[in-house]
């Protein structure tokens, strides 16, 4: 029995992906725990901006270390794993600055607690990039791209990555095969070996 793999159409523009050390640098940059957690959730769970903003306290399952993403893109629910580090940080944050409904509160025009705005999330990412010294253009979606790419590089299969990202079509996920450093041998520059052999 032969298995036919779908042809991968090369995307016109490849996503910006951070290295693992750049992600660590970005995550430790903000002074506020809330801001570090926003970045950790975007990267560590591969969340879209609106999914992060819609997170409610009831979506956190610390016992199972899972995050319930309700009504993601295409109005589909999904579960993604929460890391031990995220769970610890979220518990600390919730104890110190208890949100009521939303995991991450912002303020409305009158200064009352409200759902964190998209501009608020983008500001957190922009400020972290600015103060981290990272030169790459980083958006909220860059952290999602980095999540997918790093999972593939760490050995997770493409179908699992598709499900974690909540993609309806595998073609969308296949884009990450162009940026992930996979294969029997990691790609290298010939300059690396020119003077060593």
From TrEMBL:
Q: Which InterPro entries match?
A: DNA_brk_join_enz (IPR011010), Integrase-like_cat_sf (IPR013762), Integrase_catalytic (IPR002104), Tyrosine_recombinase_XerCD (IPR050090)
Give the keywords, sorted. DNA recombination
Recorded hits in Pfam families, A to Z, give: Phage_integrase
The lineage's top-level taxon is Bacteria
Q: Which residues form the Tyr recombinase domain?
A: 13-189
Q: Which Gene3D superfamilies match?
A: Intergrase catalytic core
Example of a GO biological process term: DNA integration
PROSITE patterns assigned to the protein according to its UniProt record, in alphabetical order: TYR_RECOMBINASE (PS51898)
* Originating organism: Zunongwangia pacifica
The molecular function terms of the Gene Ontology recorded here are: DNA binding
For this entry, the protein name equals Tyrosine-type recombinase/integrase
């Amino acid at each position: 029995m032969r298995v036919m793999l779908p042809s991968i159409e090369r995307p016109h523009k490849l996503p910006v992906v951070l290295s693992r050390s750049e992600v660590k640098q970005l995550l430790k940059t903000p002074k506020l725990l809330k801001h570090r957690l926003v970045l950790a959730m975007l990267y560590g769970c591969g969340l879209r901006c609106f999914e992060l903003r819609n997170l409610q306290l009831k979506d956190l399952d610390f016992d199972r270390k899972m995050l319930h993403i309700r009504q993601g893109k295409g109005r589909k629910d999904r579960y993604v794993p929460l890391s031990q580090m995220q769970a610890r940080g979220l518990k600390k944050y919730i104890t110190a600055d208890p949100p009521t409904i939303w995991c991450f509160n912002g303020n409305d025009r009158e200064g009352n607690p409200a759902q964190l705005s998209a501009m608020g999330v983008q500001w957190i990412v922009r400020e972290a990039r600015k103060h981290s010294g990272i030169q790459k253009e980083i958006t909220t979606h860059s952290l999602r791209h980095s999540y997918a790419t790093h999972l593939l590089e760490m050995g997770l299969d493409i179908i699992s990555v598709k499900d974690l990202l909540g993609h309806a079509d595998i073609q969308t996920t296949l884009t990450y095969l162009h940026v992930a450093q996979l294969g029997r041998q990691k790609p290298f520059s010939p300059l690396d070996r020119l003077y060593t052999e």
